[in-house]
Write a structure and sequence with these properties.
Elements: H1 4-18, H2 25-32, H3 36-48, E1 52-53, E2 61-62, H4 64-86, H5 96-102, H6 108-118, E3 143-144, E4 153-159, H7 164-172, E5 180-186, E6 193-197, E7 200-205, H8 207-210, E8 213-215
Antiparallel strand pairs: 1-2, 3-8, 4-5, 4-8, 5-6, 6-7
């Protein structure tokens, strides 16, 4: 039976591959904040599970079975987040840690029921796609707000960081998915953006924030 630690490694590999990064022992160790010997030990376990393929000095690859297993863990996580927000009234900044625990539950019927109650959503409260039961999902190509030129209008569709600190700050600024920004200025020195949206005029957003907001 898969352990939570194995599943967390599997997710880390999956996300690195989505970012088109070569999944080396070093990269995985950095992602998981563990030593190379610890990663090597886990690689043996994941290989035994049939989830990955690995040859020494070559990038780690997910097998078809591993890719599906990772996608279904992420499906449970994102369905949980959506359920907590839409049905239970949690804020989008409150749900990540709860979903981290829930994603390891093996009661598939629970998540199928969540999916049904929610009306089969395709994205979570942060705009990230929810894989279906076959591990498939549609990836949408959004631009980073930090790359948008002065004078353009764009709408926020997702956040690239679900940390409570970022989401709390967005709450304070009344920024949610669906917010449309008009960019009026970009500071030369630090790339801070001056934007307007709704009733909010000439609001400053740092470059660190703007590069985490996915717009179209």
């Amino acid at each position: 039976m898969a352990t939570q630690t194995k599943e967390n490694y599997l997710k880390a590999i999956y996300f690195l591959l989505i970012k088109n990064e070569a999944v080396t022992v070093t990269a995985l160790g950095k992602e998981m904040n563990v030593s190379k010997p610890t990663v090597n030990n886990m690689i043996k376990k994941l290989t035994a599970n049939g989830w990955i393929e690995y040859e020494k000095y070559k990038p780690i690859k997910l097998t078809k079975m591993g890719n599906l297993a990772a996608a279904l863990i992420i499906r449970k996580h994102r369905l949980t987040e959506m359920f907590l927000v839409q049905i239970m009234g949690f804020g989008w900044e409150e749900v990540h840690n709860i979903a981290e625990e829930m994603e390891h539950l093996k009661t598939e019927g629970l998540f199928d029921r969540m999916d049904e109650i929610l009306g089969y959503p395709t994205s979570d409260p942060h705009g990230s796609p929810i894989p279906d039961k076959n591990g498939e999902f549609k990836r949408k190509s959004y631009a980073l707000l930090s790359t948008i030129s002065v004078g353009q209008d764009v709408t926020l569709h997702a956040v690239g960081d679900s940390s409570a600190s970022l989401l709390t700050m967005l709450n304070e600024k009344k920024i949610t998915l669906g917010t449309t920004f008009k960019i009026s200025k970009v500071e030369d020195f630090d790339k801070t953006m001056i934007v307007s949206y709704g009733d909010h005029k000439d609001i400053s957003l740092s470059y660190e924030v703007c590069k985490r907001l996915l717009v179209e």
